[in-house]
Specification:
The chain is of the alpha/beta class. It contains twelve helices and eleven strands. α1 packs parallel to α6, α3 runs parallel beside α4 and α7 packs across α8.
Length: about 350
């Protein structure tokens, strides 16, 4: 486990989506976050106290979380310089970027000198198996998306919490850096060699016989040319009984690819069901999760209602309005069959 409390790093970022790791921690592990560290040219905020490393350390922060994502997941000079300041103040540093902290000699030397640790969250477990596609017991729900960074992790966590509120055993299975930091474990799927993606998910969500649910965090999109391979392996390894489609209705085009438009919801939903049927022939779609953060409440509720009517599935913004409609329908679809009546003499 990465020692808390945390100082969440925004740095110089001006990309709302790019700070999703820091934002996710602030949303789902708020009690473990003492503040945010952003420079004067950063227009973004998580709505928690702004602190530099000295103030954060005095407030009890033990780890600086570099909770930003950039193209290629690289450590720029600004990130390295700021991480060195945190280390000098006696703080550990955690990162989910593709470029590892341990591969930057300046950070390694500074951490060794002070006696603090560097945590690279995007390290895949060793000795993962190749997926086998064998049917396994248990109920699994996978969130999928029209694009990357549309709210799959938020939806998955909200679905878990709503199931638990009903007394249903439900576990969040993290597949990305933010989810792993929130849950404390998981598999960073985009760091797994392609041959082992399906097998990694079979290990992450193994068979279970307690009538509970594994809620598996989705990654990427079947319609995103950069990440469709990860999404495909995840669908096969998850062997989901249910899928929930996540979508940002304000997204103008695929993230990072202005020359690619988003698919319509019905097309995307059917494509995900078709791919999932390879290992889960009876998979069902049980809801639509919209990310309506950029819409006012009336417009958001109308869009959810219109989407539900158009697709014949419950639709909500799970973080804003709650996940109950999707959970109600999911549990209804997979409720145990009533025992047959026996005629009396």
């Amino acid at each position: 486990m990465i020692p808390g409390p945390y100082l969440l790093y925004l740095g110089h970022s001006d990309d709302e989506v790019g700070i999703k790791t820091s934002r996710g921690l602030a949303a789902f592990r708020r009690d473990d976050c003492v503040g945010e560290w952003r420079h004067d040219d950063c227009p973004l905020t998580l709505g928690i106290p702004r602190m530099d490393v000295a103030a954060a350390r005095a407030a009890g922060a033990r780890t600086l979380v570099l909770g930003i994502a950039n193209a290629g997941g690289r450590l720029g000079d600004d990130l390295i310089d700021d991480a060195l300041l945190a280390i000098a103040a006696g703080m550990n540093v955690a990162s989910g970027l593709h470029q590892r902290l341990r591969d930057e000699p300046r950070l390694v030397a500074a951490a060794d000198a002070v006696g603090v640790a560097l945590f690279d969250v995007r390290d895949a477990p060793a000795h993962l198996p190749v997926g086998n596609g064998k049917r396994r017991a248990g109920k699994r729900l996978l969130t999928v998306g029209t694009d990357c960074s549309v709210g799959k992790m938020y939806a998955t966590l909200c679905l878990r919490d709503a199931m638990r509120a009903r007394g249903v055993a439900a576990d969040f299975r993290a597949t990305g850096q933010t989810g792993i930091l929130i849950a404390g474990d998981g598999v960073p799927l985009d760091a797994v060699v392609a041959d082992f993606i399906a097998g990694a998910i079979e290990v992450l969500a193994p068979a279970r016989d307690d009538d509970g649910w594994d809620l598996i965090e989705g990654q990427g999109s079947l319609f995103h040319p950069s990440f469709a391979g990860v999404s495909t392996g995840l669908l096969h390894g998850a062997q989901p009984a249910a899928i929930v489609l996540c979508h940002d209705p304000m997204r103008a085009h695929m993230r990072g690819l202005p020359h690619y438009q988003l698919p319509d919801l019905a097309t995307c939903l059917e494509a995900n069901l078709q791919v999932a049927r390879l290992t889960s022939p009876d998979v069902q779609a049980t809801g639509i999760a919209l990310n309506t953060v950029k819409l006012d409440e009336d417009a958001a509720r109308r869009l959810c209602a219109d989407t539900a009517q158009a697709l014949g599935l419950p639709c909500t913004d799970p973080y804003r309005f709650g996940a109950d409609p999707i959970v109600d329908w999911t549990l209804t679809c997979f409720a145990p069959a009533a025992p047959a009546m026996t005629a009396s003499r």
